[in-house]
Amino acid sequence: xxxxxxxxxxxxxxxxxxxxxxxxxxxxxxxxxxxxxxxxxxxxxxxxxxxxxxxxxxxxxxxxxxxxxxxxxxxxxxxxxxxxxxxxxxxxxxxxxxxxxxxxxxxxxxxxxxxxxxxxxxxxxxxxxxxxxxxxxxxxx
Length: 141
Hints:
The structure is a single chain. The protein folds into two domains: 7-59 and 134-139, CATH 2.40.50.100; 61-132, CATH 2.40.50.100. Helices cover 10% and strands 52% of the residues. The chain is built from two helices and ten strands; from the N terminus they run βββαβββββαββ. It has helices at residues 41-47, 113-119; strands at residues 7-18, 22-29, 34-40, 54-59, 65-67, 79-90, 94-102, 105-112, 126-131, 137-139. The relative contact order is 0.25.
């Protein structure tokens, strides 16, 4: 399977909480990083998700927000992963920022050039990648 989404990370389901329509699925990535996804109960059932099962976490680069100094931030995004900026590709409108979050995993974000400049994003610098639980797509092999 080939995807246009830049961010595909392998995790293990660590918990599922079902609501009336949607379920909150907790996963743990290889380096122990937690990820939360909100998907429909039908998706949980169709994918056969269960605690201990491996699943792919898929997030479009355009769904990732980049920030700095966010370790104590209070935000509504459930997924905050901080690390080292390993690549920056600047364009006149958009900038691609790759953040290594541990365990060999990297998240790619596409943000505006102006935002990258205002944040002082540079290779080797520190940054955090944020994304909402509802921005996560789950997949299984």
